[in-house]
Amino acid sequence: MIFMDKYEKVLWLISFLIVFQMMTGFYLSQVRIPLKYFLYIHIFTGILIFLISIVLIKISGNTRLKRLSYVNMFLILFTGVIGLGFILLKLRFYDIYMPYIHFLIAIGIISNYAVMLGISRTLN
């Protein structure tokens, strides 16, 4: 029987949070006038994911996992900057095309965490 260590539990937690983040983001993009608290939940979850990614940098022992953690941290930061543009910029071009880029980067982030989970499982 395989038990998860603390690192793998954090990877599963952040993967769940990213899926939740993507669901709230989908709601925000589909509703004409979304509820404000969904936006606040989306922002809070993004900040929480960013903070957990910093913790993952600290607790990852392997250099490959540490490098992937840095990449994820910067991708999360870049996605947050794009998300901030939705609030600050009211450009039609931005509202039409940037949600796709925002979503594709989110898929890349969760894919990186799946790769990190696979690497950590093969190391043990």
Automatic annotation (TrEMBL):
Keywords: Membrane, Transmembrane, Transmembrane helix
TM annotation in the entry: 12-31, 37-57, 69-88, 100-119
Name of the featured protein: Trehalose synthase
UniProt organism field: Picrophilus torridus (strain ATCC 700027 / DSM 9790 / JCM 10055 / NBRC 100828 / KAW 2/3)
Lineage of producing organism: Archaea, Methanobacteriati, Thermoplasmatota, Thermoplasmata, Thermoplasmatales
